[in-house]
């Protein structure tokens, strides 16, 4: 029997993690792949687009204590 060599993953452009291609969202600016975990953490742009906008690619910072 022939072994299948399929590799259905994409690299998250925010964190670099490999995830299934169907489990992610596009970057708001350019449409590249962002994994579901980053999306749940509030990441909406890839590293490149975040750098162009002067933002961090990670989740938004919490509000300062009052």
Short description:
This protein is of the alpha+beta class and 66 residues long. The protein has two helices and four strands; from the N terminus they run ββββαα.
Number of strands: 4
Q: Biggest sheet: strands, sense, closure? A: 2 strands, antiparallel
- pLDDT averaged over residues: 83
Number of helices: 2
Q: Please mark out the parts with pLDDT under 50 across 5 or more consecutive residues, or reply none.
A: none
Distance between the termini: 65 Å
Helix content: 10-25%
Shape: elongated
Radius of gyration from the alpha-carbon trace, in angstroms: 15 Å
By secondary-structure content and strand pairing, the structural class works out as alpha+beta
Strand order of the largest sheet: 1-2
Order of helices and strands: EEEEHH
Proportion of residues in extended strands: 15-25%
């Amino acid at each position: 029997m022939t072994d299948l060599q399929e590799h259905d993953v994409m690299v998250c452009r925010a964190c670099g993690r490999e995830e299934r291609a169907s489990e992610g969202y596009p970057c708001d600016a350019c449409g590249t792949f962002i994994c579901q975990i980053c999306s749940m953490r509030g990441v909406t742009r890839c590293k490149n687009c975040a750098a162009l906008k002067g933002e961090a690619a990670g989740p938004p910072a919490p509000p300062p204590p009052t």
